[in-house]
Amino acid sequence: MKQTADILTSKGIRPSVQRVTVLHYLRGVKTHPTVDTIYQDLLPENPSLSRTTVYNTLQLLSDNGLVLTLDFGEGYLRYDADCSPHCHFKCKCCGNVFDLMSPPPDCSNMLPQGFNLSAVQLSLFGTCPKCSGH
């Protein structure tokens, strides 16, 4: 938890218990959880935690480049603490999201003159090996 608090401090964020708890949790999972999943998983050990606090913390972490906010068109957002360049694959059967550690393609050469690219998020959709029987 000390390392997580140091990460927050390095970004100029006060490392409150809730912020440290949420970021520590995200750094330890690879499931790309939603606000509700994070809240439900943390609530038993943090009974004073509110869903609003989790939401606001995730917004703060995202705004400061500590987590990625992922939108797969499901009507809710998912979060990823791995901010290194990589792609995501969402299985249309089980709904799981997998990290593909290949970096996204360089799209800067596709932009018309005057456009400045700040980020690329590539999401792929299909069926995972478990669901497709492989």
Brief write-up:
The protein has 134 residues and is α+β, with helices and mostly antiparallel strands.
Low-confidence stretches: none
CATH architectural designation of the largest domain: Orthogonal Bundle
Q: What is the helical fraction, as a range of percent?
A: 25-40%
The tally of beta strands, per DSSP, is 5
Name the helix and strand elements from N-terminus to C-terminus, one letter apiece. HHHHEEEEEH
Q: Which descriptor suits the 3D outline?
A: globular
Q: Could you tell me the strand content as a percent range?
A: 15-25%
Describe the protein in words.
The strands form 2 sheets. A 3-stranded mixed beta sheet has the order 4-3-5, with no helix packed on it. Strands 1-2 form a two-stranded antiparallel ribbon. The protein is an alpha+beta fold and 134 residues long. The mean pLDDT is 92. Helices cover 34% and strands 16% of the residues. It has 2 domains: 2-80, Arc Repressor Mutant, subunit A; 87-132, 2-Layer Sandwich (Dna Ligase, domain 1), CATH 3.30.1490. The chain has helices spanning 2-10, 17-28, 35-42, 51-63, 129-132, and strands at 68-71, 77-80, 87-91, 97-100, 123-126.
